[in-house]
Amino acid sequence: MDVEQVESMLRQEGQRRAAGNTQAFLARHAPFNKMAPTALQLFAEKAHIAFYPAGSVIVGPESGNVRFFYLIESGKVQARQAGEVTVTEYSILSLGVGECFPIGAVTAGRPSTNIYTAVEDSFCYQLPAEHYLTLMATSPEFNLFCTQYIASLLDQSRRQLQAQFAQKASEQQTLNSPLAGIGARNPVSVLPDTPLRAALEAMSQLGIGSMVVADAAKKPVGIFTRSDLLDRVVLADLPLTAPISQAMSASPFTLNEHATAYDAMLAMATHGIRHVLVTDHAGCLSGVVSERDLFALQRVGLRQIRQAIESAPSVEALKASAADVRQLSFNMLAQGIGAEQLTQFISALNDALTRRVIQLNLDRHDFAGIDWCWLAFGSEGRDEQTFSTDQDNGIVYTVPEGDDKEALKQRFLAFALDTNKDLDQVGFPLCKGNIMASNPQWCLTLDEWRAQFSKWIRTPEPVALLNATIFFDFRPLYGKSELSDSMRRHLLSQASATPIFLQAMARNALEVGPPLGKIRDFVTDLEPDHPGKIDLKKYGSRIFVDVARIYALAAGVHSTNTIQRLKLSAQKMNIKGEEINAVLDGLNFIQLLRLQHQYLEGEPGRQGDNLIDPDKLNELDRRILKESFRQARKIQSRLKLDYQVNN
Amino acid sequence: MFGIKKFLFGDGLNENLPPDVKSAVSAWLAQETASLESSHFLTRYVVVDIASDGLDPASNSLTGIAATVVHQGIVSPEQSVYVDLTSADEAIQARQLAAFLRFIGKSPLVAYHVAYVSAFLQNLLKKRLGIAFAARWVDLAWLLPAMFDEISHKPMPLDDWLTAFGLDVGEGRRSPSENNLMLARLLQMLMVRAHAKGVDGVEALIGESKASSHLRRTH
Questions:
Q1: pLDDT, mean of residues A93-111
Q2: How far apart, in whole angstroms, are the C-alpha atoms of residue B155 and residue B160?
Q3: Structural domains of chain B, with CATH
C-alpha cells in the first residue's frame, strides 16, 4: 500500500471517528433516535457542522434552491414567512435544539419560503441535499418523519387558506371604511411617455384591466383602461409607438386614502367611472379602488349568518337568515368562487338551517330514548344543492323493545310533517314527488330501509332504478348517524355483490348522453319546449352524478358527494390522477355555469332554470363547455366498457 | 550540498525510507502555502489533536493523531483523518505519517496547547521521517481569552470554555477525533469574533495567539 492509499484509509477512519459525537447527538433526538445505525452513520459522516452567530441568516428565499437539510445542534433559530401570503399557521416560529428545517423545500429542491435566522449563536448540522434524499430513500423512519411533516404542512396551508377564505367572507367591512384598506395597494403605474406597446404588454403580463399613468413623483396624471384601447387606439389608428399619454383619460378622479368607500361609490355613480385612484397625504398614488372592490364590501358575513342560524328562536328568524345565505352565496359567486366550494358552502349553511328547524320542532316532539336519524336524499344528500332545491328527506329509526311500532311511527310522521312545513317556510319547497319524511313510505325503521334497499337491488325495475338514484345518495343530517352508517354498509355490500343491478344502473345512466353535435358544437333541440337551449342538469351534471354513483357503489366508496365519489373510486380502480382531474374540471365548470345562470340571470328571489343558450356564451366559455361535455362522454364510454352495455 | 539540504530540511530525510514515502515527504517539504488565505473563511484550517501514553513528549510516545479540516466556515467529518499509531511497525508508521502530511499540507494548524501537541508531533516526525516539523500553529488555549475576554481573560481548561459557550462537553474522556470537533466549533465561533475585532486572516490570528501567550505568561 502506498502513501496515497494509506491516506484514504486514514480519511475513512477519521470520518468514522469524527462522526462519533454527531451520532451521540442524533441518538438523543427524534426521529433520529429510532433510525438504524447505518442511517445515523450516513448522516453523521456527511453532515457538515456550521456556526451561525446571532442575527445571521441561515437560509431564505434568496439563497436559491435549498442545498441542505438543517438540524439545530445548539442555539435557537427563527423561521419567518418571507412573502405577504401566509402559507402556514404561524408567521414567526421559533425552532430549538433537535429541530429540523426546511423540510418541504429541501425535499422539493426549491427555495425556502421562510427566512431562517439564528436568534442566538447557533450550531447546525447541515446535510447536503443529495444525502438527505438518500436518507429519505433508505431510512423508513426518516422518510415517515419527513413525509408526515410535509403532509402536516400541506394540511396547515390548506386549513389556513380556508380560514382566510372564511375570514374574508365574514369580514363585515362597511361602506364607512377608509379607502386605505380597500382594493389594490401600490398599483403598477407607468410614466406618461411610455410607449403604448410597453404599457399594453405590462397590462397583459400582469393581467390587469387598467393602467395608472403617473409622473416621476408618482402623482397620477391619467388612467388607461381596456375600453380606451378600443376607442382611442384601435379605432383611432393610433400607433403602438405613441406615448400612453395620448390615449389615457387625463386628470383621473382621485380620492385621499382617508376618504370612505361610500365616497368612492358616490364618485363612480356621479362620474360614470369604474376606477378611483387613491392618493396618500402627499398626493402620490397609493392604491386603486374598482367597482368590484366596493361590491365585495357589501357582503354578508359568514360567521354572523351561522350564529344567527344557530341561535334563531323561531322559523320567522330563520327565514331572514335564509335570505342572508342567498345573498352571501350570490356575492361569493360574483367574486369568482369555484363551483365546488360554493355548493359545499351552500350545503353547509343549508344543513345548519335544516338542523335548526329540526331542533325547533323537537321542542314540541320528544323522542328521548329512541334512536333515530333525519336523512337527506338527492342533491342535498350529495352536498351539491343550489339554494332553493326541493326538500328530499326521510327518517330512519329503531323501535325500542316493548314499544308499539305503529304508534312510534305516527309520532315521527307528525314531527316530520311540522318540520317539512317549516322547511318550506324557510325556503326549501315541498317535494313534488313527496320524497319527504312525512310520507309514511320514507319514514322507516332501520330494518325496513335495509329491506327496501335489498328489494330495489334484487329487482332493478325502472321505478327501483329511479329510486336508487335518489335514495342511495343519502346522508345523515340530524340524530344518530350510526343508523345511516349501518344503512350504507348494507347498501354497499348488497350493491357490489349484485352485478346485474349495477349493469342495469349503468344502462339507465347511459340513456342520456352529452349534447355534442356531429356538425355543430352543441345539440340544442333536445328539449322541444325550449328550442335553442341546453339543459345543463339533465345533459350535463347528471351524467357525472350517475356515473359517480355507480362507481362508488361498485368500489364500496362511502361518500355521496360526486367529486369525492369520483376521486375515491378512481383511486380504488386505478384510474390515473390527471384523467380524473380532467373529468372533475368538466363537472365543476358545468356546475359553475348552472349556478351563474341561476343566480346571476334569474329573477332575484327565485331560482332560475338550468337552461342555457350556448350561443350567448362567450367564445372561451363555449370551448370549455364543449370540453366539459367531452369529459362527460369520456366517463360514459368508460362506464359502457366496464359494464358491457351496448345501446 | 549536504549542508544546504540539512539547513533546509532539518537533519534531512531519513535515507532508508521507501521511495513512495520519501517522495511524498519531499513533495510536502517543497509544497507552498495554500494561496487563498485572504480571510478566515477562505483559509483551510486543520484542527489537530493527539492521544499519547503519557504527558511528557520526551519520554512518552504518541498513540494516535486526529485532524479535521475547517474550511469556508464549515466542519465536515468527511474531511478528517485518524492516524492509529498503536501499531509498532516503524515502516507502517512512516507511511502513515507521510499520508498525514499529505492531508494537512501547509495549512495552518489549530490545537489546544500547541506547545504540547507540537512537541509530540515534532519528536515522532523527526524519529520516523527525519524531518524537523515546523508549521504555522494557532493556539486556541491562548486565543480564546484574547478574543472572548468577557468570558475569561486568562487560559482555562477546555471544558470550561465549552461549558461557557453552552456546548455539550459530553461524558467521560473525548477521543482526539471527538475533541477535534469541539475545537473546530470553538474555531468557528472564534473566526466570527476575530472578524468583528478586525483580526482578519491567518497571520493576524497567529500574531494574536503569540501576543496573547506572551502577555498572559509575562504579566
A1: 84
A2: 10
A3: 2-218 (3.30.420.10)
